[in-house]
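Page 42, continued from yesterday. The earlier attempt failed because a stray header line got pasted into the input along with the sequence. Redoing it now with the clean sequence only.
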Amino acid sequence: MSALAINRNLRDSMVVFLSSVAASGLVFLFQLIVAKDLGLREFGSFVLLIEIMSMIILLSDAGLAVAFVNLFVKARSRSSGEADYLLWVSMRWKLMLILGAVLLGMIVSRVLPGTEAIGHWVFAIAVLGAVGESFYQFGLSMLQAQGRIMTLARDRVLLPLARILLVGLLHLTGLLSLESALLANAAMAVGFGMLIVVRLIHRGDIEQVALDRRMAIRGELQKMLRSTQIASICVIATAKLQFFLVDVFSDSAQLGTFAAAHRYSMVASILTVAATTVLMPLAAAVDSRAAFDKYRAASWRLSACFAVPVLALVLFADPILPLLFGAEFDVAVVPAQIMLLGLVLSMFVTPLSYTFYNASAAPALAWLNAGQLVFSCVVGLVLIPTYGAIGAAWVSLGVNVLGLAVIVTVAATVSRRLS
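This time it went through. Structure tokens are written below.
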């Protein structure tokens, strides 16, 4: 690879990283504004709905974006018609996944007691927003596949920025409530989702793609989806289960406490995205024991740098969290500290798992995801009914410790295999 290509890749990675951090920061700010206006209990209801919507968004993808990006580059190298046909096939898959995800979201919402006081029209607005954002996220994947990095970076930031402006206006005019916050969230998602998809989709010359090539493209997509969907569903279920268990077995105050603690820990998630952006390309080049040892040392150094600000958030959570969310959210300090400690552990070991794909050890990650889901369910049922938000935080820490143990064990096997 030429020096020019390397520099371009580094520039593109940095642009994507900065736009991801900016978008995550705007999402965090959006929820801070809402928390200050709604208070502890109503903020818990707001975040519960957001988590249900997030579940719909994630299930309506379930590995489709990753499969599309990987296959699009190959299809485009053969012909523009094949690339356009892959896009249309992916969109049909997207519609089916969205339908299934919305139906599941409706079932979950009827089971959870925290949604009983929420009107049907409010929930309908939230679902509409989830569908809009699902298309918006897929549009971003389309831009990534097409290599339109600067457009991707811009569009990634526009939706959360528009939400901030609208919710800020509602806050200043005294109109911000649970209903208006959800309406603002949904209206922006639908608008940007329609805009980005309509702008990118065109039929092109797919009629010129032969029938056998169409069947081959559909087969490749289905094969890749089968290998990613189970792991994706396990990860999604593990991430949402603690919220749902807190809602079922605790009161609205505990739900609001856990919601604030979870949102406070988002800062660590942003830093994890940063580490992933830097380390993924390095992990892809690991093909020997020496390269593995070098990568491991580099990942630990980088993780140590990112862990420092997270540990500062742990140590100073007592003054920072109530300052950000409001005085009544001081009960979320201890759960937030526990969750952040788990994320610090994850920062050091998760990068090792990036090397598993080259070493044919990727199935171990699927088994790990399934094990974490079972652990989260069993231990959550024991701790959350008694300890509420703190119990959920301990479950989160336990999930990360389990991941640490499995990843370190598999990484040792990968290291020996590369010798």
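Notes: The chain has a mean pLDDT of 81.
Reminder to self: strip header lines before submitting.
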